[in-house]
């Protein structure tokens, strides 16, 4: 009898609907990932900052944009990356606990985010945001929802960090998640998306959550047909790994077709 391939075995594992998202421990995830500014996050922030700045240096928007950060979790820096250009920002999140955390945090975000914001202010459009706390509080709304239910064409700039590969073990769901994210943006919308490379899954508090072990070619295959000016950067380990069970990070920036 022919044995199933490793890909088939992995893909038959845990789906997005199987994972205990409403039991996600927001505080444990925040403390482990974002209480300090890590070197890999520093590199990602600078790359996303520079990408958006260069994009808008050549393509001035007609007016303020509608932004979205998909799967925000307890990470505010993707939303902070959108501040100079947006009239509103949707933080789209499935976990009930993360929704509660986000609704509280955006009102006056904690001091640990000051180090993250400081990196953005090395570029002029961000430096002109004199009060990032007040601006985020005034622009941001939190929407509880499943990524697979994202409405199409609702936003004109977007971010999605460590989400598509971190919601199930199935390649099909990874690909669908990326397609839903791109479809949620209007044509010509700039975006940034980040991924944990070859993630084997991750623990938050006492619970295990699934992941798909994505690599750069799969990211490119999913995004290239739907985007223009695609730039993909692989980041190794500039410091200590965040946890066991991954081989680096991947950042993709581009413009929707």
Automatic annotation (TrEMBL):
Keywords: Methyltransferase, S-adenosyl-L-methionine, Transferase. Pfam families: NNMT_PNMT_TEMT. One of its GO terms (molecular function) is methyltransferase activity. GO terms for biological process: methylation. InterPro entries: NNMT_TEMT_trans, SAM-dependent_MTases_sf. NCBIfam families: SCO2525_fam (NF040568). PANTHER family: NICOTINAMIDE N-METHYLTRANSFERASE, NNMT/PNMT/TEMT FAMILY MEMBER. This is Methyltransferase.
């Amino acid at each position: 009898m022919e044995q199933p391939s490793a890909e088939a075995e992995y893909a038959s594992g845990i789906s997005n609907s199987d994972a205990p998202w409403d039991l996600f421990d927001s505080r444990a995830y925040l403390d482990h990932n974002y209480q300090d500014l890590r070197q890999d996050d520093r590199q990602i922030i600078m790359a996303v900052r520079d990408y958006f700045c260069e994009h808008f240096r050549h393509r001035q928007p007609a007016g303020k944009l509608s932004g979205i950060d998909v799967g925000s979790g307890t990470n505010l820096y993707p939303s902070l990356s959108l501040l100079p250009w947006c009239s509103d920002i949707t933080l789209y999140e499935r976990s009930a606990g993360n929704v509660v955390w986000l609704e509280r945090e955006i009102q006056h975000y904690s001091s640990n985010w000051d180090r993250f914001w400081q990196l953005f202010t090395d570029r002029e459009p961000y430096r002109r945001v004199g009060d990032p706390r007040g601006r985020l509080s005034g622009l941001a709304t939190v929407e509880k929802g499943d990524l697979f239910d994202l409405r199409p064409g609702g936003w004109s700039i977007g971010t999605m960090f460590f989400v598509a590969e971190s919601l199930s073990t199935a390649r099909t769901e990874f690909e669908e998640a990326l397609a839903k994210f791109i479809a949620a943006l209007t044509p010509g919308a700039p975006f940034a998306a980040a991924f944990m490379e070859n993630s084997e899954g991750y623990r938050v508090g006492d619970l295990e959550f699934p992941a798909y072990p994505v690599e750069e070619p799969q990211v490119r295959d999913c995004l290239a047909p739907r985007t223009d000016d695609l730039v993909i950067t692989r980041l190794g380990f500039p410091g200590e790994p965040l946890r066991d069970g991954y081989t680096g990070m991947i950042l993709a920036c581009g413009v929707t077709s």
